[in-house]
Protein: tRNA:m(4)X modification enzyme TRM13
Organism: Syncephalastrum racemosum
Amino acid sequence: MPKAPKANKAAEPVPPPPSKPRQCHYYVARKRRYCSLPAKLTNKYCGEHIAEQQKDQTEEDMKRVPCPYDPSHTVYEKDLEYHMQARCNSRPRPPDVYFSLNVNCTVPLSKEELEFQKTIFSHKQQHAQPWLARVQLSELPKTELEDLITKVRRVFDEQVPSIVSQILTEPTVESKKPTLTNTKHLDQNSSLLGHMRQMGMLKDKSACFIEFGAGKGELSGYLKRALGEVDGEATYVLIDRKTVRFKYDNALLGMQQTHKSTVERCSIDIKDLDLSKVPALTRASGEKKKVVALSKHLCGSATDITLKCLMNYDEAQKAAGQTQPIDGIIIALCCHQICRYEMYPHTAYLDALGLSKTDFERIAKMSSWATCSKRQNEDQDEHGGNLGEEADADETAGHYSGLDHKERETIGYQCKRVLDAGRMKYLEQHGFRAHLVYYVDPATSLENCALIAVPAEQK
């Protein structure tokens, strides 16, 4: 009869190595003791077991740790110091000449947020900020929600002018349409450039065209085609806080070997941008170039700090003696639900209407009702705003507001336009004629409203 196999004994714990000098650290499990051969003073193991030391070193060398500047990537621990000094794209760099911390914020930021800003080395670290308003409309008493909706309807009727739908095209952009299968972005770019031409923003080819939230610079690429410049007269400034593929930068320079356009890319948060100090805006003579500002889908507060940035520049240049520093502004608006009170440019408008900071935050949140049930069909790269609770709530059979889908959608659009009306009035205060226009069909983009402004004295 065969013997039953012996039960495996539990592995005995390995004791620490003796503390005597030159002790080899190799544990001989069979003898239940450490190797008795001496090791060199500089080694942990004797000559017989030196391979174990090499194995330990290999494992140590292969250990990866998160980069302190940008935890979204890791690096070998042994290379961490050099990576942080010379290789990491998110490492702190000397501030640019046009950097001025929070210069375009309307209301001073909290001490907590200012402290947090000191630890930011990458735009990827700007999420989950605890001081941002976490508005939960579903938790409001129904009477408060109804009062807020009544306020929105009243302000909309009083302040928001009628908005026309005007879908234009730019021939130089339309010529590319046969080569594309998805023309959604092209249609938007074509109409925006068509409105720029209609408003006279393309007349001066020597102007400085500044694209805010530029990304790869696609809109500026189409703009260059629309301008039809021959001798590199135009200047292009591309502003974005993210580091992206500079896909259109070379195209903007032009094909000429001798007369190339001036192209400058500013990797900076718009809230910190002092436009008057961007080198590309100044001619060799010291005179400032005329500015035309453009953007396609500048999300939430990015639109507000852009307007503040432009008006700060406009005021500074007029004070310095320049007449009409800005020839035009066109911004395709979106993602009002991530607007912030501290960055809204016309808080006096809100005060005059009896809208508090809390009201503003709730109205911004409620603006997502306009698109939350449809956004899954939109391009998430184009609209970065998080809908959160509202998208989830819209899937339920009964909505906490007691309104049906069509009513909520109408209220959502009214919230957007109430905020946009304040932006218009802010520009008008600074001597601009401003209006809103639906520049593409909703089937092309749910966020189909653009803000357009030119100097009031311009005919």
